[in-house]
């Protein structure tokens, strides 16, 4: 117990040193910046300033925000200002629209999709994880869309995290609270008739996403596989047995399910210890633990540094590798199944599951 408390204090100290996401508004982006529009559904309560805070709302709010991705940054990097923002190095928001109800949101999304050429009409929904405020989730959605070259529409589901390293229990409850809101967002997105729907969920957001899909399946059996084309779980903070139960309840899963894992994920190590376990889904030791499930497990331990809890979206080397693999890029854009043999790594197939161990050395060898 003393080791767990010491580890928790270390995490809190690290979190305290980092600047938190604050929304900076600039009508004109910096020279060389790239603007990405992000459609948002949220179960956060509106703040007096008109945006969204950390408290829970039983009503889903909808909006569309344009984020300028700065030119002076490495892939995966998001810098937050502690004072006056520098739009050449830091993300800023350049425009915002709020929609009064779901049909208005769906109509705007449908217009955006229709304006795109065929093959670029996918809807890619990012669901953030633990200890995340509204700005951080919004900017992360824009960063992923930009760094991975996603050509479809970027969307974000922002659930009411307390945005505090001490708020783990609160966030677990909020993730469960936000399940219905996510199904409402999915309904609104599906009604806009995108060519593909892909969910990318991080950490505790993976638990929320699986619970929402379970809810959808129990209400309408078979709908998940019909409507959701791909599910990518990044460092999922889910008990392995709970994940199995969720998959059983969902039944027919999306055609493509990818789980990113790292055995150096310090946040999941702490989560497991606090739960009296040795691991979570995002840091399993072997693909064999999911052998009976039709999933692809990408082990990115070799790329993990620091906390190792968002390696897939923050490691410049891994982002370059994944972006340059056409099949995996297609899985982000279109929900299409990739062939593991095209990834430079060690491939392990155990019954229905496929594991791919990626490392910087195999990445260099594959270039």
Overview of the structural elements:
The chain is of the alpha/beta class. It has one domain (2-22, 111-366): Alpha/Beta hydrolase fold, catalytic domain (Rossmann fold, 3-Layer(aba) Sandwich), CATH 3.40.50. Helices cover 37% and strands 23% of the residues. The protein has 13 helices and eleven strands.
Protein traits:
367 residues; disordered N terminus; hydrolase activity; AB_hydrolase_fold; eleven-stranded mixed sheet; 37% helix; DUF900_hydrolase
The overall pLDDT average reads: 88
User: Biggest sheet, in brief?
Assistant: 11 strands, mixed
> Which class of secondary structure composition applies to the elements?
alpha/beta
Identify the CATH architecture.
3-Layer(aba) Sandwich
The CATH superfamily name is Alpha/Beta hydrolase fold, catalytic domain
CATH topology: Rossmann fold
Between the first and last Cα atoms, what is the distance in angstroms?
Answer: 45 Å
How much strand content do the residues show? 15-25%
Characterize the overall form.
globular
Order of helices and strands: HEEEHEHEHHEHHEHEHEHHHEEH
User: What proportion of the residues is helical, as a percent range?
Assistant: 25-40%
Total of DSSP H or I helical runs spanning 4+ residues = 13
Question: Which CATH class?
Answer: Alpha Beta
Strands of the biggest beta sheet: in what spatial order?
A: 3-2-1-5-4-6-7-8-9-11-10
Q: Could you tell me the number of beta strands?
A: 11
Rg from C-alpha positions?
Answer: 19 Å
Overall domain count: 1
User: Spans with pLDDT under 50 lasting ≥5 residues?
Assistant: 1-17, 331-341
InterPro entries: AB_hydrolase_fold, DUF900_hydrolase, UCP033909
Signal peptide: 1-18
Keywords: Hydrolase, Signal
Protein name: Alpha/beta fold hydrolase
